[in-house]
Amino acid sequence: MALQIAIDGPAAAGKSTVAKRIADRLHYIYIDTGAMYRAVTYKALKNNMDLNDGPALAEMLRHTHIDLFAGRDGQTVILDGEDVTDVIRSPEVTNHVSFVSKHPELREVMVDRQKALAAKGGVVMDGRDIGTRVMPHADVKVFLQASVEERAERRYKEQIKKGINTPLDELKKEIALRDERDQKQLQKAEDAIVIDTTSLSIEAVTDKIMDLIKERVRSQ
Ligand code: C5P
User: Hey, which of 66, 135, 185 would you mutate to test ligand 1's pocket, going by the most ligand atoms within 8 Å of its Cβ?
Assistant: First the structure.
């Protein structure tokens, strides 16, 4: 069966970790749509583009190749032939991505691409508008949420493992700021199942979503 699974939620809610695990279990393709917005932001910054110019950003995206490959430690992101997997996670990109992703002209181009990637099914996609715009007919829609404190703590632990030591307070501020800037981009589908992951482990969240998927398959 080639289902479409949509996972939406705010920054650092655990979407990508969970989405990756679900995709692995089902042998599906995992698509991190945030990485696509990050890649185009990286290119805009590199080319000193005006981040307020939505039409110009959309036009640039039309002439940009973004490829996602399943790597051993997650997704490898190739932008016009350049491996940008790590650089798109830099604070510079993180702090500017919402200003790029907010433009409707750019989103239109991006959503069309993401729809094409999802068309055949057998995909787990995570982002902000997957259940509403990219895969409005997804078989399973999940909306993950967690408190800012919890999300900051998770990000902190994740970064410590990578040898990055950003103070917890700073991460909390960053996440709260991105919530504010992503208000328009983040849309919960009416038929999405909300899972508050604040006191749940990654395994527990993954199991919950797997149960929803099994239920859905049984009812088909
Ligand atoms: O998921 P991640 O935090 O990496 O996403 C980076 C940014 O990309 C978000 O802060 C948001 O501005 C944008 N985004 C979006 N729509 C999506 C996925 C991400 O606008 N579907």
Answer: 185
Q: What is the pLDDT of residues 103-155, one digit of tens each?
A: 999 999 999 999 999 999 999 999 999 999 999 999 999 999 999 999 999 99
Q: What is the pLDDT of residue 193?
A: 98
Burial class (CB within 10 angstroms; exposed 0-12, middle 13-18, buried 19+) of 133: middle
Q: Tell the burial category of 140 from Cβ atoms under 10 Å away from its Cβ (0-12, 13-18, 19+).
A: buried
Give the predicted TM-score (pTM) of the model. Answer: 0.96
Q: What are the distances in angstroms from CA 127 to CA 15, 139, 215?
A: 8, 16, 23
Pocket of ligand 1 (CB under 6 A): 11, 33-34, 37-38, 97-98, 101, 127-130, 178, 182, 185
> Does 3.40.190.10 match the CATH number of domain 4-215?
no
Q: Where are the domains of the chain?
A: 4-215
